[in-house]
Amino acid sequence: MQAETMTAGALDGLVVLDLTRILAGPTATQLLGDLGATVIKIENPAGGDDTRAWGPPYVTGPDGAPTDLSAYFMAANRNKQSVAVDIATPEGQAVIHALAATADIVVENFKPGGLAKYRLDYASLKAIRPDLVYCSISGYGQTGPNAAKPGYDLMAQGYGGIMSLTGAPEGEPMKVGVGIADVMCGMYATVGILAALRHRDRTGEGQHIDVALVDSQIAWLINEGVNYLTSGKVPVRRGNGHPNIVPYQVFEAGDGHVIVAVGNDAQFRRCAAFLGVEGLADTPDYATNPARIANREALIATLVPLFRARTMAAIIAGLEAAGVPVGPVNRIDQALATDQVGARGMVVEVPCPAAQSGHVRLLGNPLKLSRTPVSYRRPPPRLGQDSAEVLDRLHAAVDPATVPGRTRAE
Protein backbone atom coordinates (compact mmCIF):
# COMPACT_ATOMS: atom_id res chain seq x y z
CA MET A 1 0.00 0.00 0.00
CA GLN A 2 1.32 3.42 -0.89
CA ALA A 3 1.48 5.92 1.97
CA GLU A 4 -1.05 8.71 1.60
CA THR A 5 -0.43 12.33 2.43
CA MET A 6 -3.12 13.46 4.86
CA THR A 7 -3.98 16.88 6.21
CA ALA A 8 -4.99 18.04 9.67
CA GLY A 9 -4.57 14.96 11.83
CA ALA A 10 -6.15 14.80 15.28
CA LEU A 11 -3.00 16.27 16.86
CA ASP A 12 -2.19 18.71 14.07
CA GLY A 13 -0.60 21.86 15.48
CA LEU A 14 0.91 20.19 18.55
CA VAL A 15 4.70 20.10 18.86
CA VAL A 16 6.50 17.21 20.56
CA LEU A 17 10.09 17.55 21.74
CA ASP A 18 11.37 13.99 21.69
CA LEU A 19 14.34 13.29 23.98
CA THR A 20 13.93 9.52 23.79
CA ARG A 21 15.80 6.65 22.19
CA ILE A 22 15.59 2.86 21.80
CA LEU A 23 11.93 1.72 21.75
CA ALA A 24 9.48 2.68 24.53
CA GLY A 25 9.79 6.45 24.11
CA PRO A 26 10.09 6.39 20.31
CA THR A 27 6.97 4.19 20.13
CA ALA A 28 5.02 6.87 22.00
CA THR A 29 6.34 9.78 19.96
CA GLN A 30 5.86 7.97 16.64
CA LEU A 31 2.22 7.38 17.54
CA LEU A 32 1.81 11.08 18.32
CA GLY A 33 3.43 11.88 14.98
CA ASP A 34 1.15 9.49 13.11
CA LEU A 35 -1.79 11.37 14.64
CA GLY A 36 -0.53 14.65 13.18
CA ALA A 37 1.80 16.14 15.79
CA THR A 38 5.11 17.69 14.74
CA VAL A 39 7.81 15.58 16.41
CA ILE A 40 11.33 16.96 16.82
CA LYS A 41 13.69 14.14 17.75
CA ILE A 42 16.86 15.24 19.52
CA GLU A 43 19.85 12.98 18.86
CA ASN A 44 23.42 12.98 20.04
CA PRO A 45 25.65 14.04 17.12
CA ALA A 46 27.97 11.13 17.96
CA GLY A 47 25.88 8.33 16.51
CA GLY A 48 22.33 9.37 17.37
CA ASP A 49 19.71 6.95 18.68
CA ASP A 50 21.44 3.71 19.69
CA THR A 51 19.12 1.70 17.46
CA ARG A 52 20.60 3.27 14.33
CA ALA A 53 23.42 0.77 14.85
CA TRP A 54 21.15 -2.17 15.70
CA GLY A 55 21.45 -3.96 12.40
CA PRO A 56 21.61 -5.44 9.89
CA PRO A 57 19.34 -5.03 8.08
CA TYR A 58 19.87 -1.42 7.01
CA VAL A 59 18.36 0.65 4.24
CA THR A 60 20.78 0.81 1.30
CA GLY A 61 21.50 4.32 0.05
CA PRO A 62 21.73 5.53 -3.57
CA ASP A 63 25.46 4.73 -3.52
CA GLY A 64 24.76 1.11 -2.59
CA ALA A 65 26.18 1.47 0.91
CA PRO A 66 24.26 0.86 4.14
CA THR A 67 22.80 4.00 5.72
CA ASP A 68 22.12 4.77 9.40
CA LEU A 69 18.51 3.69 8.87
CA SER A 70 18.40 0.28 10.50
CA ALA A 71 15.14 -1.64 10.37
CA TYR A 72 14.95 -1.43 14.16
CA PHE A 73 15.29 2.37 14.11
CA MET A 74 12.71 2.72 11.34
CA ALA A 75 10.17 0.67 13.28
CA ALA A 76 9.60 3.53 15.74
CA ASN A 77 10.83 6.75 14.14
CA ARG A 78 8.73 7.80 11.16
CA ASN A 79 6.95 11.17 11.13
CA LYS A 80 9.86 12.79 12.99
CA GLN A 81 12.48 15.41 12.30
CA SER A 82 16.00 14.70 13.53
CA VAL A 83 18.02 17.49 15.14
CA ALA A 84 21.58 16.69 16.24
CA VAL A 85 22.34 18.41 19.56
CA ASP A 86 24.79 17.60 22.35
CA ILE A 87 22.75 18.21 25.49
CA ALA A 88 25.89 17.90 27.64
CA THR A 89 27.05 21.31 26.41
CA PRO A 90 25.67 24.71 27.47
CA GLU A 91 25.04 25.49 23.81
CA GLY A 92 23.05 22.30 23.37
CA GLN A 93 21.03 22.99 26.49
CA ALA A 94 20.19 26.46 25.16
CA VAL A 95 18.87 24.85 21.98
CA ILE A 96 16.65 22.48 23.98
CA HIS A 97 15.38 25.33 26.15
CA ALA A 98 14.43 27.32 23.06
CA LEU A 99 12.70 24.32 21.49
CA ALA A 100 10.87 23.56 24.76
CA ALA A 101 9.47 27.08 24.77
CA THR A 102 7.69 26.25 21.51
CA ALA A 103 6.69 22.67 22.44
CA ASP A 104 3.45 21.33 23.88
CA ILE A 105 4.89 17.98 24.93
CA VAL A 106 8.30 16.73 26.02
CA VAL A 107 9.01 13.01 26.23
CA GLU A 108 12.25 11.68 27.74
CA ASN A 109 13.58 8.31 28.87
CA PHE A 110 16.74 9.13 30.79
CA LYS A 111 17.44 7.67 34.22
CA PRO A 112 15.38 9.43 36.90
CA GLY A 113 17.12 12.66 37.78
CA GLY A 114 19.54 12.34 34.88
CA LEU A 115 18.37 15.47 33.06
CA ALA A 116 18.42 17.77 36.09
CA LYS A 117 22.15 18.44 35.72
CA TYR A 118 21.49 19.71 32.20
CA ARG A 119 18.52 21.83 33.35
CA LEU A 120 16.27 19.75 31.10
CA ASP A 121 14.16 18.15 33.84
CA TYR A 122 10.46 18.94 34.32
CA ALA A 123 11.03 21.71 36.84
CA SER A 124 13.51 23.50 34.56
CA LEU A 125 11.40 23.27 31.41
CA LYS A 126 8.18 24.07 33.26
CA ALA A 127 9.76 27.39 34.20
CA ILE A 128 10.13 28.07 30.47
CA ARG A 129 6.71 26.74 29.44
CA PRO A 130 4.32 26.49 32.42
CA ASP A 131 1.62 24.52 30.56
CA LEU A 132 4.08 21.91 29.31
CA VAL A 133 3.06 18.24 29.30
CA TYR A 134 6.26 16.42 30.27
CA CYS A 135 6.41 12.61 30.15
CA SER A 136 9.24 10.65 31.79
CA ILE A 137 9.68 6.99 30.82
CA SER A 138 12.03 4.83 32.90
CA GLY A 139 12.60 1.25 33.91
CA TYR A 140 11.15 1.36 37.43
CA GLY A 141 9.66 4.85 37.71
CA GLN A 142 10.75 8.08 39.38
CA THR A 143 10.18 6.67 42.90
CA GLY A 144 10.72 3.43 44.80
CA PRO A 145 13.83 1.47 45.83
CA ASN A 146 14.69 0.51 42.24
CA ALA A 147 14.25 3.96 40.70
CA ALA A 148 17.98 4.38 40.02
CA LYS A 149 18.33 1.05 38.23
CA PRO A 150 18.54 1.04 34.43
CA GLY A 151 15.52 -0.26 32.57
CA TYR A 152 15.57 -2.68 29.67
CA ASP A 153 12.71 -4.57 28.07
CA LEU A 154 14.11 -8.00 28.94
CA MET A 155 14.69 -6.96 32.56
CA ALA A 156 11.11 -5.65 32.79
CA GLN A 157 9.71 -8.88 31.36
CA GLY A 158 11.66 -10.87 33.92
CA TYR A 159 10.98 -8.61 36.90
CA GLY A 160 7.30 -8.14 36.07
CA GLY A 161 6.44 -11.84 35.88
CA ILE A 162 5.44 -12.33 32.25
CA MET A 163 8.45 -14.55 31.52
CA SER A 164 7.37 -16.93 34.27
CA LEU A 165 4.17 -17.50 32.29
CA THR A 166 5.75 -17.78 28.84
CA GLY A 167 7.32 -20.89 27.35
CA ALA A 168 6.89 -24.64 27.53
CA PRO A 169 5.80 -26.03 30.92
CA GLU A 170 9.06 -27.90 31.37
CA GLY A 171 11.26 -25.34 29.64
CA GLU A 172 12.97 -22.20 30.82
CA PRO A 173 11.10 -18.90 31.28
CA MET A 174 10.80 -17.24 27.89
CA LYS A 175 10.59 -13.62 26.81
CA VAL A 176 8.02 -12.49 24.27
CA GLY A 177 9.48 -12.48 20.75
CA VAL A 178 9.50 -8.66 20.48
CA GLY A 179 10.16 -5.88 23.01
CA ILE A 180 6.59 -5.94 24.26
CA ALA A 181 7.33 -4.32 27.63
CA ASP A 182 8.84 -1.34 25.79
CA VAL A 183 6.00 -1.17 23.28
CA MET A 184 3.24 -1.36 25.88
CA CYS A 185 4.99 1.22 28.05
CA GLY A 186 5.04 3.52 25.03
CA MET A 187 1.32 2.92 24.54
CA TYR A 188 0.53 3.73 28.18
CA ALA A 189 2.71 6.83 27.89
CA THR A 190 0.70 7.99 24.88
CA VAL A 191 -2.58 7.53 26.75
CA GLY A 192 -1.18 9.54 29.66
CA ILE A 193 -0.01 12.31 27.34
CA LEU A 194 -3.41 12.58 25.67
CA ALA A 195 -5.13 12.67 29.07
CA ALA A 196 -2.76 15.42 30.23
CA LEU A 197 -3.48 17.40 27.07
CA ARG A 198 -7.20 17.13 27.79
CA HIS A 199 -6.58 18.49 31.29
CA ARG A 200 -4.45 21.31 29.88
CA ASP A 201 -7.17 22.21 27.40
CA ARG A 202 -9.68 22.52 30.25
CA THR A 203 -7.49 24.27 32.82
CA GLY A 204 -4.39 25.64 31.09
CA GLU A 205 -2.29 23.54 33.46
CA GLY A 206 0.54 21.25 32.36
CA GLN A 207 1.83 18.30 34.36
CA HIS A 208 4.50 15.64 34.77
CA ILE A 209 3.72 12.06 33.70
CA ASP A 210 5.77 9.26 35.30
CA VAL A 211 5.46 5.92 33.48
CA ALA A 212 7.66 2.87 34.02
CA LEU A 213 8.39 -0.29 32.04
CA VAL A 214 7.85 -2.50 35.08
CA ASP A 215 4.60 -0.76 36.10
CA SER A 216 3.30 -1.21 32.56
CA GLN A 217 4.41 -4.83 32.59
CA ILE A 218 2.58 -5.47 35.85
CA ALA A 219 -0.59 -3.83 34.47
CA TRP A 220 -0.76 -6.13 31.48
CA LEU A 221 -0.49 -9.33 33.47
CA ILE A 222 -4.27 -8.92 33.14
CA ASN A 223 -6.20 -12.12 33.95
CA GLU A 224 -3.19 -14.08 35.21
CA GLY A 225 -2.31 -11.32 37.67
CA VAL A 226 -5.88 -11.14 38.93
CA ASN A 227 -6.10 -14.96 38.94
CA TYR A 228 -3.31 -14.92 41.52
CA LEU A 229 -4.76 -12.01 43.52
CA THR A 230 -8.10 -13.81 43.66
CA SER A 231 -6.96 -17.38 44.38
CA GLY A 232 -3.53 -17.03 45.94
CA LYS A 233 -2.27 -19.69 43.53
CA VAL A 234 0.85 -18.81 41.53
CA PRO A 235 0.20 -19.22 37.76
CA VAL A 236 2.47 -21.55 35.85
CA ARG A 237 3.71 -21.83 32.29
CA ARG A 238 1.30 -23.65 30.00
CA GLY A 239 3.02 -23.14 26.69
CA ASN A 240 0.29 -22.10 24.27
CA GLY A 241 -2.51 -23.25 26.56
CA HIS A 242 -4.98 -20.91 28.25
CA PRO A 243 -5.24 -20.82 32.07
CA ASN A 244 -9.04 -20.51 32.12
CA ILE A 245 -10.32 -22.18 28.91
CA VAL A 246 -9.70 -25.66 27.44
CA PRO A 247 -9.03 -26.41 24.62
CA TYR A 248 -7.66 -22.99 23.69
CA GLN A 249 -4.19 -23.42 22.26
CA VAL A 250 -1.96 -24.34 19.33
CA PHE A 251 -2.26 -27.79 17.81
CA GLU A 252 0.10 -29.40 15.33
CA ALA A 253 -1.51 -30.22 12.00
CA GLY A 254 -0.04 -32.52 9.37
CA ASP A 255 1.60 -29.57 7.58
CA GLY A 256 1.93 -26.79 10.14
CA HIS A 257 0.19 -25.44 13.22
CA VAL A 258 -3.29 -24.11 13.92
CA ILE A 259 -4.89 -22.25 16.80
CA VAL A 260 -8.14 -23.67 18.14
CA ALA A 261 -9.99 -21.39 20.55
CA VAL A 262 -12.97 -23.19 22.06
CA GLY A 263 -14.76 -20.54 24.09
CA ASN A 264 -17.78 -22.44 25.42
CA ASP A 265 -19.33 -25.88 25.80
CA ALA A 266 -21.37 -25.67 22.60
CA GLN A 267 -18.24 -24.92 20.60
CA PHE A 268 -16.48 -27.89 22.22
CA ARG A 269 -19.34 -30.15 21.18
CA ARG A 270 -19.02 -28.97 17.56
CA CYS A 271 -15.23 -29.31 17.67
CA ALA A 272 -15.51 -32.89 18.93
CA ALA A 273 -18.01 -33.68 16.19
CA PHE A 274 -15.64 -32.35 13.53
CA LEU A 275 -12.86 -34.56 14.91
CA GLY A 276 -15.16 -37.59 14.87
CA VAL A 277 -15.31 -38.03 18.65
CA GLU A 278 -18.77 -36.65 19.43
CA GLY A 279 -18.98 -38.69 22.61
CA LEU A 280 -16.30 -36.60 24.32
CA ALA A 281 -18.77 -33.75 24.78
CA ASP A 282 -21.06 -36.06 26.76
CA THR A 283 -18.31 -37.37 29.02
CA PRO A 284 -18.55 -35.87 32.52
CA ASP A 285 -14.79 -35.20 32.46
CA TYR A 286 -15.13 -32.97 29.40
CA ALA A 287 -18.74 -31.78 29.20
CA THR A 288 -18.09 -28.40 30.86
CA ASN A 289 -15.21 -25.98 30.79
CA PRO A 290 -14.39 -26.42 34.52
CA ALA A 291 -14.30 -30.18 33.92
CA ARG A 292 -12.05 -29.75 30.90
CA ILE A 293 -9.70 -27.57 32.95
CA ALA A 294 -9.53 -30.22 35.67
CA ASN A 295 -8.78 -32.91 33.07
CA ARG A 296 -6.70 -30.78 30.72
CA GLU A 297 -3.80 -33.18 30.19
CA ALA A 298 -5.93 -36.20 29.34
CA LEU A 299 -8.14 -34.23 26.96
CA ILE A 300 -5.24 -32.62 25.11
CA ALA A 301 -3.51 -35.99 24.78
CA THR A 302 -6.68 -37.28 23.10
CA LEU A 303 -7.00 -34.32 20.75
CA VAL A 304 -3.36 -34.02 19.62
CA PRO A 305 -3.29 -37.05 17.25
CA LEU A 306 -6.71 -36.15 15.84
CA PHE A 307 -5.48 -32.72 14.74
CA ARG A 308 -2.13 -34.07 13.56
CA ALA A 309 -3.94 -36.43 11.18
CA ARG A 310 -5.47 -33.48 9.28
CA THR A 311 -4.04 -30.67 7.19
CA MET A 312 -4.17 -27.03 8.24
CA ALA A 313 -6.58 -26.24 5.42
CA ALA A 314 -8.93 -29.06 6.38
CA ILE A 315 -8.94 -28.07 10.05
CA ILE A 316 -9.54 -24.40 9.33
CA ALA A 317 -12.26 -25.04 6.76
CA GLY A 318 -13.98 -27.64 8.92
CA LEU A 319 -13.97 -25.73 12.18
CA GLU A 320 -14.93 -22.45 10.52
CA ALA A 321 -17.93 -24.23 8.97
CA ALA A 322 -18.80 -25.55 12.43
CA GLY A 323 -18.58 -22.11 14.03
CA VAL A 324 -15.51 -22.89 16.13
CA PRO A 325 -12.83 -20.15 16.30
CA VAL A 326 -9.73 -21.35 14.44
CA GLY A 327 -6.81 -19.86 12.58
CA PRO A 328 -3.33 -20.50 11.23
CA VAL A 329 0.02 -19.84 12.90
CA ASN A 330 1.60 -17.71 10.18
CA ARG A 331 5.24 -16.85 9.72
CA ILE A 332 5.82 -13.10 9.47
CA ASP A 333 6.21 -13.26 5.68
CA GLN A 334 2.90 -15.10 5.43
CA ALA A 335 1.14 -12.72 7.82
CA LEU A 336 2.29 -9.57 6.01
CA ALA A 337 1.25 -11.02 2.64
CA THR A 338 -2.35 -11.81 3.63
CA ASP A 339 -5.28 -10.13 1.94
CA GLN A 340 -6.51 -8.93 5.34
CA VAL A 341 -3.26 -7.08 6.09
CA GLY A 342 -3.41 -5.52 2.63
CA ALA A 343 -7.02 -4.48 3.01
CA ARG A 344 -6.32 -2.85 6.36
CA GLY A 345 -3.27 -0.93 5.15
CA MET A 346 -0.96 -2.52 7.70
CA VAL A 347 2.06 -2.43 5.39
CA VAL A 348 2.81 1.03 4.00
CA GLU A 349 5.29 2.27 1.44
CA VAL A 350 6.75 5.65 2.39
CA PRO A 351 8.85 7.74 -0.04
CA CYS A 352 12.43 7.98 1.27
CA PRO A 353 15.15 9.83 -0.67
CA ALA A 354 17.82 8.19 1.50
CA ALA A 355 16.90 4.75 0.14
CA GLN A 356 18.29 3.36 -3.10
CA SER A 357 14.79 2.22 -4.02
CA GLY A 358 13.32 5.65 -3.27
CA HIS A 359 11.01 4.29 -0.58
CA VAL A 360 10.89 2.19 2.58
CA ARG A 361 8.23 -0.32 3.62
CA LEU A 362 6.97 0.00 7.18
CA LEU A 363 4.29 -1.47 9.40
CA GLY A 364 1.11 0.60 9.36
CA ASN A 365 -0.65 2.24 12.28
CA PRO A 366 -3.66 0.19 13.47
CA LEU A 367 -5.83 3.22 14.31
CA LYS A 368 -8.64 3.86 11.83
CA LEU A 369 -10.16 7.29 12.53
CA SER A 370 -13.06 8.32 10.31
CA ARG A 371 -12.49 12.10 10.48
CA THR A 372 -8.82 12.54 11.38
CA PRO A 373 -6.97 9.53 9.94
CA VAL A 374 -3.35 8.82 10.71
CA SER A 375 -0.85 9.88 8.07
CA TYR A 376 2.66 8.95 6.97
CA ARG A 377 4.20 12.31 6.14
CA ARG A 378 7.88 11.68 6.76
CA PRO A 379 10.10 8.62 6.48
CA PRO A 380 12.42 7.83 9.40
CA PRO A 381 15.08 10.57 9.29
CA ARG A 382 18.83 10.42 8.79
CA LEU A 383 20.79 11.64 11.80
CA GLY A 384 20.55 15.43 12.08
CA GLN A 385 18.99 15.88 8.66
CA ASP A 386 16.47 18.46 9.91
CA SER A 387 18.72 20.53 12.18
CA ALA A 388 18.79 23.53 9.85
CA GLU A 389 15.07 23.43 9.04
CA VAL A 390 13.97 23.14 12.66
CA LEU A 391 16.29 25.77 14.03
CA ASP A 392 15.47 28.21 11.25
CA ARG A 393 11.92 28.14 12.57
CA LEU A 394 13.19 29.39 15.89
CA HIS A 395 14.60 32.51 14.18
CA ALA A 396 16.58 34.62 16.65
CA ALA A 397 15.70 32.43 19.63
CA VAL A 398 18.63 30.13 18.89
CA ASP A 399 22.10 30.94 17.67
CA PRO A 400 22.67 28.60 14.67
CA ALA A 401 26.35 28.38 15.60
CA THR A 402 25.39 26.20 18.58
CA VAL A 403 24.21 23.42 16.31
CA PRO A 404 26.75 20.92 14.95
CA GLY A 405 27.46 21.44 11.28
CA ARG A 406 26.13 25.02 11.08
CA THR A 407 27.74 28.44 11.20
CA ARG A 408 26.50 31.98 11.81
CA ALA A 409 26.83 32.66 8.11
CA GLU A 410 24.15 30.07 7.39
Task: Report on the architecture of this protein.
By secondary structure, this protein is of the alpha/beta class. The protein folds into 2 domains: 15-220 and 338-402, Crotonobetainyl-coa:carnitine coa-transferase, domain 1 (Rossmann fold), CATH 3.40.50.10540; 248-331, 2-Layer Sandwich (formyl-coa transferase, domain 3), CATH 3.30.1540.10. It has helices spanning 24-34, 71-74, 90-102, 122-128, 153-159, 162-165, 180-203, 213-219, 222-231, 265-274, 289-294, 296-308, 312-321, 332-336, 339-343, 387-393; strands spanning 15-19, 38-43, 58-60, 66-70, 81-84, 105-108, 133-138, 207-212, 248-253, 256-261, 326-328, 347-351, 359-363. The strands form 4 sheets. Strands 5-2-1-6-7-8 form a 6-stranded parallel beta sheet, sandwiched between helices. The protein has a 3-stranded antiparallel beta sheet with strand order 9-10-11. The model is unreliable at 396-410 (pLDDT under 50).
Summarize the structure.
This protein is of the alpha/beta class and 410 residues long.
Brief descriptors of the model:
410 residues; alpha/beta; Rossmann fold; formyl-coa transferase, domain 3; 2 domains; 3-stranded antiparallel β-sheet; 16 helices
Percent helix, as a range, is 25-40%
- What fold name goes in the CATH topology slot of the largest domain? Rossmann fold
Strand ordering within the main sheet: 5-2-1-6-7-8
Helix/sheet category: alpha/beta
Mean pLDDT over the residues = 94
Helix-strand pattern, N to C? EHEEEHEHEHEHHHEHHEEHHHHEHHEEH
Number of distinct helices: 16
Q: Largest beta sheet, briefly?
A: 6 strands, parallel
CATH superfamily of the largest domain: Crotonobetainyl-coa:carnitine coa-transferase, domain 1
Total individual domains = 2
